[in-house]
Every structure is written in C-alpha cells, then in structure tokens.
Amino acid sequence: HNRNAAQGRRSPVEQNPNINIGSNTNQALRLAINTAQFGRTFQDRSHVIRLVPRTGLGQPTADAINIKNLNVRGKRGNIVQTFPSVEYDFVPTRMVINATDYVHIQWTGSNTHNNGNPAGDGQAGDAGEGTGGTDRHNMVEISSSDVNYPLPFESSGMFKNATIFWRSFATDKGATYTKQDLAVAMASSGYFGCFEGCAKAAKTATTALNNLLNNAPASFEGAVLSFPGSSERDTIYNYICSRNNNFTNRSQKGKITVKRTASQ
C-alpha cells in the first residue's frame, strides 16, 4: 500500500506521511501510519442479519404493526473474561411497549466459544454454567425484579396472557397450541415445542431436558407475541434466564412494561 513512483504505485497511503496543516510557515505534522499494518484485519466482527417478510402474523395490516426485537447480548465469561464485550444480558433489559406492539423474542448462541490464551483484551477462561464453551438461554417469569426464583406456570401471567402471532416451533400442533405450550418452549429454549400434543412434547419425551440446558439448542428463533395492557396502570412482566442468572455476581434478568391503555 506504500506509494512507489518507480514501480508505478500511486497509493494515497504513505509510510508516516508529513501533512501540511496550512500555516504560513508550512509547518508539517507527521501521521503514524505503518503501511505494513494498514491493510490488515485483526478481528473480523462482521455479522450477517437476515430480514424475512412479515408473513403468517395473522393480521391483514401486518406491515403497519410495530415489531420490537427482544434478544440476548454478551458472551460467556465473567466481566474480565468478556472484556471488551459484556456478560450475558437480555437486550433491551427494560422494554417499554404499547399493547398494540408485537414482540419477537429470539436469541443466538454458539457451541464453540473459545476464550483460551492469549484471550485478546481480557483474561482467558469462560466462567459460567453448563458445558464449557457453550451459550444457552431461556426465559422464565419471576414475580419481581429482586426475585431469583421462577414462578410456576399456574401462578404466572407473562406467557399466559400473551397472544401468539407466529412461532418457530411445534408448527405441527396448529391452532390447538396453548399458552402452557408456549411457556414450556420458552423455558426449554425450544428443546420442547409444547407440553403435549406435538412431535417434541415435554410430556412424552424419551430424553429429558438437561437442567442446565446443555442439550437444548444454542440459538432460538422464538415467537412473535403481544401482551395486553390495562386501562388502570402499566402492566409489568419480569423474567430471568435460569441458567445464567448467577446469584452471586452475574444476573440475566429483563422486564417488559406494557403502557397503560386509554380508557374506553
């Protein structure tokens, strides 16, 4: 990339060039450019995002609906090991929506996370739960943000109150899909597609879900849902990832606030 008139190279990139800053004295400043390093890529952090058509949402005006993305960020490890990234967290951690909004809950993960020496900017290691080198997530409701114990389905409201417009799992069950089925799929990261009545039913499974989600999928295309509001007050749903919500120094919690609806 170095300019070389003898070889016919007219690159605008020069080794440590002197730049005239326009003063009357023609004072020059030197830039620190090493042409041997200039064209190198040390870390490829490019990502591919695929946008798909809004089909199958069950609404004739689907193009006019706001669809909010509820995902997961960060990577496996403690705060030092993940630097300059962050530890696992839902994103957005606190989502505020209208009752007319849709929410697409989804996440991605890996089975080949490698944070060995020299470990880049942080320390080597991948502190976390479950099989080393793997990412796993799920979503289970809690009663409030200062609680770390999931609610049983019978006492929950988040998925019980949700309306399902699209799901990536248990499509063989059709219109008989229930809110209990949805809660099971979210808690198992799609390892189970439903509680009963589908090909991947929890009730009839021959292989149990590992309690740390080790045999669950690393990535989950999830579902598109809406949550009803109240005319009296904001409606709040809190949730955690049961695997990564560490009681000592790491938490993976989130909150959805459905804004109060206008009185009829």
Describe this structure in words.
With 264 residues, the chain is mainly beta. 8% of the residues lie in helices and 20% in strands. It has four helices and eleven strands, in the order ββαβαββββαβαβββ. It has a five-stranded mixed beta sheet with strand order 4-3-6-9-8. The longest helix is centred in the C-terminal third of the chain and has 9 residues. The N and C termini lie far apart (68 Å).
CA-based shape: elongated
Strand order of the largest sheet: 4-3-6-9-8
> Kindly, what is the distance between the CA atoms of the first and last residues, rounded to a whole number of angstroms?
68 Å
The residue-averaged pLDDT reads 88
Helix content: under 10%
- According to DSSP, the number of beta strands is 11
- Structural class, please? mainly beta
Please compute the radius of gyration using only Cα atoms. Answer: 25 Å
The biggest beta sheet is recorded as: 5 strands, mixed
Query: How large is the count of helical segments?
Result: 4
Features:
single chain; 264 residues; mainly beta; five-stranded mixed β-sheet; four-stranded mixed β-sheet; 4 helices; elongated
Topology summary:
Blueprint: E1 18-20, E2 28-30, H1 35-38, E3 67-73, H2 79-82, E4 89-91, E5 94-97, E6 102-107, E7 140-142, H3 158-161, E8 163-167, H4 179-187, E9 220-226, E10 235-240, E11 253-258
Parallel strand pairs: 3-6, 5-11
Antiparallel strand pairs: 1-2, 3-4, 6-9, 7-10, 8-9, 10-11
